[in-house]
Amino acid sequence: MSTVSAYAASDKTGHLTKTTIERREPGPHDVAIDIKFVGICHSDIHTVKAEWGTPNYPLVPGHEIAGVVTAVGAEVSKHKVGDHVGVGCMVNSCGHCSSCTAGLEQYCKNGATFTYNATDKDGTITQGGYSQAVVVDENFVVQIPDSLPLDKAAPLLCAGITLFSPLRHWQAGADTRLAIIGLGGLGHMGVKLGAAMGADVTVLSQSLKKMEDGLRLGAKHYYATADRDTFKKLRSSFDLILNTVSANLNLGAYLNLLDVDGTLVELGIPEHPMEVPAFPLALARRSLSGSNIGGIAETQEMLNFCAEHDVTPEIEVIAADYVNEAYERVLASDVRYRFVIDTSTI
Amino acid sequence: MSTVSAYAASDKTGHLTKTTIERREPGPHDVAIDIKFVGICHSDIHTVKAEWGTPNYPLVPGHEIAGVVTAVGAEVSKHKVGDHVGVGCMVNSCGHCSSCTAGLEQYCKNGATFTYNATDKDGTITQGGYSQAVVVDENFVVQIPDSLPLDKAAPLLCAGITLFSPLRHWQAGADTRLAIIGLGGLGHMGVKLGAAMGADVTVLSQSLKKMEDGLRLGAKHYYATADRDTFKKLRSSFDLILNTVSANLNLGAYLNLLDVDGTLVELGIPEHPMEVPAFPLALARRSLSGSNIGGIAETQEMLNFCAEHDVTPEIEVIAADYVNEAYERVLASDVRYRFVIDTSTI
């Protein structure tokens, strides 16, 4: 066991304070990682504030982890000391169900082990990346290509794969008319990744405030959803819509923006059930779908894709003692577009 | 113009009375049809009772039409006098939009012309098949194979194609774990068609009352949804679920019955928006989709498939003056499984 510094929440105020946690000694299949940077994801905030159920306190959030390997177990073959590596939302899964064997560990039938607030194989509660180090099974560690700086790589481990996976699954490419709802941490990755795949990208944002950014990041079109004409003008004009907004929207209006056989994918999970009228689905064979992060092999493919196409998030690097203020700014949508904690300051 | 007997509703009570309507002289591309049988679809009842908006009264419903050709226009090449033919939910579409050119006339961008309560090309309001004769553009008339009796063929034109099209689109076959929600007019066709395609068919019905029927029609499994254990037992066990129930269900519970990448297709359109929780979609990349009848070529394919596989609906043939009582019985789910009006009694 080793003791490392971390930032943890102790109750549902979600306020984070500095503390220490224990990390296990690396087992034969484990990789020990010196965490360099960790991204702040909206899920971290939902979880520590008990908005998705009461978590196990004290809880260290963080599942956008980028660092350097400091030790490996005797059986480890995929990583070596000094490698730049990443850990995302999962640190384990059953490995033998139909999802795991298909490379869809995120949909493990026996429940993937999430990076924080989950029960690990040894019975302990997992603690996330707002800390100086972590020990993870080698199969849940991915290689970060050298051309990607670690601070910018961190948000790819959740925000990046969350957008990359549905873009691949629903086959976004040169013929795809793609809309991204919301230009935040997730949405701005959707714009960049979609554009890199060759799609014709439209941003649907509440206002035109971030329009200049959106076009610079790769969108060809930008519309304000507060303007009701947007919904008339864009009717039946998209093949794929990725919704990154977790507030409940008027989904019927957005579904009508899909062409025949189009799909709207929910990525920002709203707290309350969505109200979905049946006619917009039936009258053009449209689909409302969900997607959750991506598999491990697909996460590696995403990192390689980002290195090859020079796709990285827009980030604001902060010191750890700024994290509570950063949370407030995330909730106020006042970040362009992802906070990343420099963990040397923890 | 010719005057023919028909049954029409005059107000939103939906009560049908005998009347006469005018049919146009066949134009060069038209087919005149002596209607022999017409099925009673739940949509007829929704429409005449103004549950989907106030229709144009007086209104003759009926879009499951089977009959014999009595005359054809000079340019007609697809049908000839004496042919057994059918007409379903559409009698026209624009013919040039991306949907029409793809054989998806039901999703015509300019709005397909429905068989009743729609504005026809000549500005008149279309009147349906609860009548002795109808005149329809040849492209919206399909051939009924000789081996299908006309009374049993009638319901295939709506109930049949409504199930056949999604089964084909979502590729139901020998590997498909298929569930049908509701064993009514639509549902019983889903069981028969799904079984004929080789799928492993499960019926999900409120109770086990119709279990014997369901198994006889081709289902391998039958569960009562009033039993909460059903939802535990069947979790993640279907690839495709077709929902034929138009009442609002607890969709989250049904979505959880889908395996990873499974799809639940809404066929019975509920009046109120559906409440859809996001987690069941996200946690297994499930989809909620809609589908509406099928294209004309696909309708012909369905009739040929039914002839080849000896798939026909279970029907109760009635005289026209029983129609109002039949409506009451449809609303009480007291029909096994489709009423068909013998139009010689109109």
UniProtKB/TrEMBL annotation, chains A, B:
UniProt xrefs under PROSITE patterns: ADH_ZINC
Keywords: Metal-binding, Oxidoreductase, Zinc
PANTHER family reported in the protein's UniProt record: ALDEHYDE REDUCTASE (PTHR42683)
Enoyl reductase (ER) domain ranges (all copies): 9-341
Co-factor requirement: Zn(2+)
Organism annotation: Mycobacterium cookii
Protein name, entry field: NADP-dependent alcohol dehydrogenase C
Any Pfam family: ADH_zinc_N
MF GO annotations: alcohol dehydrogenase (NADP+) activity; zinc ion binding
InterPro entries: ADH-like_C (IPR013149), ADH-like_N (IPR013154), ADH_Zn_CS (IPR002328), CAD-like (IPR047109), ER (IPR020843), GroES-like_sf (IPR011032), NAD(P)-bd_dom_sf (IPR036291)
Membership in a protein family: Belongs to the zinc-containing alcohol dehydrogenase family.
Enzyme Commission (EC) number: 1.1.1.2
Catalysed reactions, as listed in the record: a primary alcohol + NADP(+) = an aldehyde + NADPH + H(+)
